[in-house]
Design a protein that fits this description.
By secondary structure, the chain is mainly α. The protein has a domain at about 360-485. The protein has 22 helices and six strands. The protein has helices spanning about 100-120, 125-130, 145-155, 170-180, 185-190, 200-210, 225-230, 245-250, 255-265, 300, 305-310, 320-325, 340-345, 360-365, 385-395, 395-405, 415-430, 435-445, 470, 510, 530-535, 570-580, and strands at about 20-25, 50-55, 65, 95, 475, 480-485. The strands form three sheets. The chain has a two-stranded antiparallel ribbon with strand order 1-4. Helix 16 (about 395-405) crosses helix 17 (about 415-430). The longest helix is centred in the N-terminal third of the chain and has 24 residues, at about 100-120. The radius of gyration is 46 Å and the shape is rod-shaped. The chain starts with about 20 loop residues before the first strand and ends with a helix.
């Protein structure tokens, strides 16, 4: 490449240059001299020209002529003096420092003063107070956090507990700043970066929060912890996450298209997770494009809940009808003199957030007591394992003897033997052989009541056996019948949370309005999105932000795809353009 040449009319003899230290003192008046000061600030003014003696023609005398340059106005009218000196003597001045050099002096002075001040502060008692941008939240000031930081990092590290560079010197600070992406001098890149990405500071966060992993595997990019959880904002609780962090992605069509496209490349099992591994949870199938529908506000454009949108069913094989128990059913007997309602079976758990599991012993046995002998209704078949029920039926002589001694006060051997023989004879007269009785207990779904009332309940509506097939799916097996055990989920929202205690002032049917009409245990009676939005809306009485139900940190284990250390600015464009094809 050729060097750029100066303009044709450029006078290379002129001294002015942008980096010149000294300038002519007459510059402020607009009449600087052509030579300017020297490098030491001495005035270099000279006459406008150096007259030249010009020989005269024949008969004429030689004379001095003016040689003033055209740039300065050309030859003057006066011309040189008779002695050959210029008629315009030099105007001496006091050279001045150039504006650029003055700025340089100010800049250097500020730098020196700043460095001196920083050295004084950094190595004094106010070091940490000076560099801290604000007070920590109370949890990060607690003794528990201090002990955790001590266990992880050794001795008291103060700022270095989170900011690793804080325990090093200025050279490491400069190296850390230089290695940052974007760097401190990449102003344009800093302005164009839409959000903070994962950094070394995030790795420090995860040492204390190992289970707070990031979002779904198909996110277009990972957010830095500090983009949502902003520290140094005061000594109280950490500032709540702004809902706009959620809407920034879930309300952006390009981002959601990119996430859907990326999700197609990830195996399905990477999306399978549940919050509480110790609880039975209902697992709704993931939509084909994942959870990438555009959402800007819960009451405005949040989709219907998946269980209702896809008309999902509970795979539970238990035979149960809410309509029979709590609906308009005049034949349903009273329990302790009261009509059954939701609270008869559904009891709040500790704290009231969730409800306790419905169990046979606590909720069903009062009405379905598994009695099989109308003359001895207190003798009941054990509930649970089919093998226990079969062993009970095959040891009836011993069971009757134990029942007679405990419940009827019969203790003599002769009386006990007589009682057992009489009861077994009545069973044979009623059911035939022991094998037939066993078949009825496992496979009968009769609803005929025994003659005797138990526990204050009317006999009307009682099942004679309340046998296995009355409530359960029973299939013949090789050695004993196979009774399908019911699996009742304790958690229905695998990607959200719900607190019953916050809704205690509402009637159950306000949200679970279909319960009194449901005839099958496979019906999922969760509230609809519309019923929730009646309160959870800007004009309602309840919060309607994303964090009321959802959490950004979903996965229980870290996804095994590497987190990018450099920003891939082409990924979003590529995924979006591919999604549109």
């Amino acid at each position: 490449m050729k060097d750029q040449l100066p303009a044709p009319d450029f006078n290379s003899q002129r001294y002015e240059r942008p980096n010149q230290k000294w300038v002519c003192g007459w510059l402020c008046d607009g009449t600087p001299c052509k030579n300017g000061p020297d490098g030491k600030g001495h005035c270099g003014a000279t006459a406008d020209c150096h007259p030249v003696l010009k020989p005269g023609n024949e008969g004429e005398k030689a004379a001095f002529v003016c040689t003033r340059s055209k740039e300065l106005g050309g030859p003057c009218e006066e011309g040189p003096r008779a002695d050959g000196c210029c008629s315009h003597p030099p105007k001496l001045c006091q050279p001045q420092l150039s504006l650029r050099h003055k700025r340089g002096l100010v800049t250097k002075s500020v730098i020196v003063l700043t460095l001196g001040l920083l050295l004084v502060i950094f190595y004094g008692g106010y070091r940490w107070r000076f560099i801290s941008p604000g007070e920590l939240s109370f949890k990060h000031q607690s003794a528990a956090f201090a002990q955790m930081a001590h266990d992880l990092h050794g001795a008291n590290q103060q700022c270095a507990a989170c900011h690793a560079a804080a325990k090093s010197g200025p050279s490491d600070w400069i190296a850390t700043a230089s290695a940052a992406d974007p760097g401190p001098h990449e102003l344009q890149k800093l302005l164009l970066t839409p959000h903070p990405e994962t950094t070394r500071l995030d790795l420090t966060c995860q040492k204390c929060h190992p289970h707070h992993t990031f979002h779904e595997p198909n996110v277009a990019w990972e957010y830095s912890c500090s983009s949502c959880h902003q520290e140094h904002k005061g000594g109280g609780p950490m500032k709540a996450v702004n809902v706009q962090h959620c809407v920034g992605c879930h309300g952006n069509a390009e981002v959601m298209q990119a996430a859907a496209k990326k999700g197609e490349l990830i195996p399905a099992h990477h999306f399978d997770f549940q919050f509480d591994q110790t609880r039975a949870s209902f697992r709704a199938p993931r939509p084909a494009k994942g959870y990438t529908q555009l959402i800007t506000e819960f009451s405005k454009d949040h989709p219907e809940f998946l269980v209702h949108r896809e008309n999902l069913k509970d795979p539970n094989t238990l035979r149960f009808s809410h309509a029979t128990h709590v609906g308009d059913n005049p034949n349903m007997p009273l329990l302790d003199g009261r009509k059954l309602d939701c609270a008869s079976c559904h009891k709040p758990g500790p704290g009231g957030v969730y409800y306790q599991r419905v169990t046979f012993e606590a909720n069903c046995k009062a009405c379905h007591s598994l009695q099989f002998d109308r003359e001895n209704p207190g003798l009941t078949i054990p509930h649970g394992e089919p093998a226990f029920a079969q062993a009970f039926l095959r040891s009836l002589p011993q069971q009757y003897a134990s029942y007679a001694s405990k419940s009827k006060g019969i203790t003599g051997k002769t009386e006990l033997d007589r009682f057992v023989r009489e009861q077994l004879k009545e069973l044979r007269d009623q059911f035939g052989s022991g094998e037939e009785l066993e078949q009825k207990v496992f496979f009968s779904d009769e609803r005929t009541a025994p003659a005797t009332s138990i526990g204050g309940l009317s006999s009307k509506g009682r099942s004679m056996f309340a046998g296995c097939a009355y409530c359960h799916e029973v299939k013949p097996g090789k050695d004993l019948p196979i009774v399908t055990a019911p699996v009742m989920p304790e958690r229905w929202l695998d990607r959200g949370r719900f607190d019953h205690s916050k809704h205690a002032n509402l009637s159950c049917v306000t949200c679970h309005e279909q319960a009194i009409f449901s005839k099958h245990a496979s019906d999922i009676l969760l509230p609809t999105q519309h019923s929730c939005a009646a309160c959870h809306r800007p004009q309602g009485a309840a919060r309607n932000d994303c964090l009321e139900c959802h959490s950004y940190h979903h996965r229980p284990e870290k996804f095994d795809l590497p987190i990018r250390t450099e920003r891939n600015t082409n990924f979003l464009k590529t995924a979006t353009s591919s999604a549109g094809k």
